[in-house]
Amino acid sequence: MSALPAFAPPDDALFQRAQSLLDDEWLAHDADLAPVLPMVLARGVGQDWHKAGTFRHHLVGVARSLALWGQPRDVRLLGLLHSVYGNAFVDLVKFDAASERGRLQALVGESAEHLVYLFCTMSRAQFVQKVLAGELQADGSLVVEKNGPAPRQTVHLAPYEVAAFTIVSMADTIEQWFSWQDDIYSRFPAVDPSRPQAVHWAASLWPGPMRPTARMVSQIAALGLALQHPGLRGQLPLPPVFDHCSQGLTAQDEAAATALYWSVIQLAQPLVDLDGATATLEQAVRLNPWVGEPQMVLAQLYLSAGRAHDAACAARGALQAFSAWGNAWDKRVQWDAWIAWTRILLQSAEEGGWPARLDKLNNVALKG
């Protein structure tokens, strides 16, 4: 038997923060965000399509990650409102930047509205390109173009704004990105505009096979590493992902890990015994230890093989990863559902029991 992957130890404080956000009503208890939500909902965001769900799901999901990451009020409000003036990525304009800035300022304050306005009106693709290319100035500031026809105006972002926009970009990406966007929005932030939809109709069918992204987690890691810039470090709390933004992930390792994981999910492994699938998932976890779903599935395989101790280690590692993100990587089910099943696996591993009959899996429940 080969050595197990290195599963991250649990962070109890982080898990407790995650638990407080599992309830769908968490936003109603947030004194900073709750007063804003009714106005946003009144603009129909619960009915607008957005990637893997509705626009409401997206805005709330981004805000949830930022809350989990301990971000201050203005940044969490930016997460909840980050597209309401529209932007170059989506045509969803919920507030008219020409006439309604004062209304939003009265609701959230000038500093938060200023961040929302800048984030919506700057070129976000150029922002990501420049941050990834290490083009920050010595003090952490950055000059980017605004959206619109050429010649475009530029805006000078202060270090705090760069840090805030980098962190919100990380949360924005993990909330929405899956294989459908990998296909139709390929090579982001340098999007490939050459592929006509009629020719590539198969890639355009929404939501597609719902594979996890094979390329964007490594980009999120690179954005996190940019927060280590001397001018940005200390501006805002570092997100807990990638060991508090201190570790990277190569694009090659991410792509390979996603392919290995998906081969198990699609049962493209020998089905007579668990060895092939288990070894495949172990390698996926070694290549990308930063997402929870491969570790969670591995925990169930260990339980099925009677390896309770190994299952507990994998389940704890999965919970730690889920608790660091606040959103699911594999978007076939929601973040809270991944955590709920992982806790069942951990409970079963610690108690030394797992259903021997297939139908009994339908009856498992968390105790206490």
Topology of this protein?
Blueprint (H helix, E strand, L loop, with lengths): L11 H8 L17 H5 L7 E2 L2 E2 H14 L4 H9 L19 H8 L1 H12 L2 H9 L9 E4 L8 E4 L1 H18 L2 H6 L16 H4 L11 H11 L14 H5 L5 H15 L9 H13 L5 H12 L3 H18 L9 H17 L17
Antiparallel strand pairs: 1-2, 3-4
Write up what this structure looks like:
The protein has 368 residues and is mainly alpha-helical. The protein folds into two domains: 1-23 and 250-287 and 291-368; 31-245, Hypothetical protein af1432 (Orthogonal Bundle), CATH 1.10.3210. It has helices spanning 12-19, 37-41, 55-68, 73-81, 101-108, 110-121, 124-132, 159-176, 179-184, 201-204, 216-226, 241-245, 251-265, 275-287, 293-304, 308-325, 335-351; strands spanning 49-50, 53-54, 142-145, 154-157. The strands form two sheets. A two-stranded antiparallel ribbon has the order 1-2. Helix 3 (55-68) runs antiparallel to helix 4 (73-81) and helix 8 (159-176) runs antiparallel to helix 11 (216-226). The longest helix is centred in the middle third of the chain and has 18 residues, at 159-176. The chain is globular, with a radius of gyration of 21 Å. The two termini are 35 Å apart. The mean pLDDT is 93. It comes from Diaphorobacter nitroreducens. Residues 40-124 form the DUF6817 domain. This is DUF6817 domain-containing protein.
